[in-house]
Structures are given as structure tokens and as C-alpha cells.
Amino acid sequence: MDERSAWPRYELLDGELLVTPSPTWAHQMIVAAMHRIVAPYCIEQSIGVALMSPADIELAVESILQPDVFVVPEELIPTEPVQGWEHVRSLLLAVEVLSPSTQRADRVGKREFYLDHGVPDYWIIDADARVIERWTSDSTRPDIRRDVLEWQPATARSSLRIDVQQFFVRDCRLPRRL
Fold first, then answer.
1. Could you tell me if residue 2 is inside a domain?
2. What is the domain count for the chain?
3. Is residue 3 part of a domain?
4. By C-alpha distance, which of 23, 48, 36, 50 is closest to 127?
5. Per-residue CA distances from 51 to 40, 72, 85, 101 (Å)
6. Is residue 1 part of a domain?
7. Closest CA to 71 of 15, 129, 13, 155
8. Which domain, by its residues, includes 126?
9. Any idea what the Cα angle at residue 175 is, between residues 172 and 178, rounded to 5°?
């Protein structure tokens, strides 16, 4: 971790402490772009609310994760003011943006954790390869999307379609090569 990344992110996965540097500019541009796409869809479809980390999501004992973007199901949205995240016991979607320091945890540990704990969709955004890996609870391999990613949760009336290449160039405003 260099001087510019003075505030690390802490997560707990199956009792193991994960400490990673604070996100980069490109990472945050990707997170913001994905949130801008997913959030209005969730509201329009009345399926839940899309949020961004930091947020201490505890789907199991000894595991507190901070997915970059995540969707809390409609039925778990509090109707009264709350202080913490205790009410979030499930997610419709968890999205992680790869970085060199998180690659193994995102592709193995977190993927297994989210899918094992009832998250129906887990996406890994790989900006270097310009792809989105989509994992679902019934998949043994990722659906690697270079063209269009389509998502339709069980209660949604229509699907969300993301043009993957336009996502990286137009929405994230990333240079051709990072």
C-alpha cells in the first residue's frame, strides 16, 4: 500500500481478515457507473434498492463483506430509521470490481461465499479484459459477457440489458487500456 492509499478496506470472510488498499480512481468510476445503471432498474421494477460500499453486510456469522455494488431485496428495505446493516440478511445481486489485490478473494472466496449464502447473482467486473463474469447459484462456470449482460431477477417484469463494451467506454469513461 502506498502513501496515496492510506485507508485500507477491511472485510471478514469465514473468520479470515481481508485487508485491501483503498480503491483506485478507475475502480470507483466502474462502481459508480454500475450503480447508475442498476439503481433505476431496481426502482422501476420494484425489486429492491441498489447501494454501494462501504456497508457491512453480514450474511453469515464471522463474515462481514463490503460488495462494491449490491441490491437489497424490496422486503428488507427498512420502513423505520435504522443505524446499521443488521436487517440485510440477503441480497439479490453482489458485484465486485477486480483489482490486483482483490483478484483471488473476489474470484474464489467471495464468489463461493455469496453463492453458498443465497445470493442468486454475483458479477465480477474485469476492466483489464473488458468483461463481466456472471455467476449464478446454479452455475459451475462463469458466463463471461463481452457483448450484452442481461439480468432479470425472479420478481422483475422485464430484464436489465447492459452493453458491456459501451459500459466500459461510455459509462465508466475508461481509457482504452488501463
1. no
2. 1
3. no
4. 23
5. 11, 8, 12, 23
6. no
7. 155
8. 9-171
9. 100
Question: How would residue 6 be classed by pLDDT, with cut points 50, 70 and 90?
Answer: low
Query: Considering only CA atoms, which of 133, 42, 45, 50 is closest in space to residue 88?
Result: 50
- Please give the grid coordinates belonging to residue 73: 431485496
Secondary structure (3-state) at 169: helix
For residue range 68-93, list pLDDT tens digits in order.
Answer: 999 999 999 988 888 889 999 999 99
Give the DSSP letter string of 58-81.
EEETTEEE--SEEEEEGGGS-SS-
Q: What is the mean pLDDT of residues 20-28?
A: 90
How many of the other CB atoms lie within 10 Å of CB of 32? Answer: 16
Scan for cell 482504452, then name that residue.
176
Q: What are the cell numbers at 144?
A: 463471461
| CATH number of the domain residue 101 falls in | 3.90.1570.10
Task: Break the chain down into helix, strand, coil percent, rounded to 5.
Answer: 25, 30, 45
Q: Is residue 4 part of a domain?
A: no
The C-alpha atoms of residue 57 and residue 16 are separated, in whole angstroms, by: 15
Most confident of 26-30, 78-82, 93-97, 103-107: 93-97
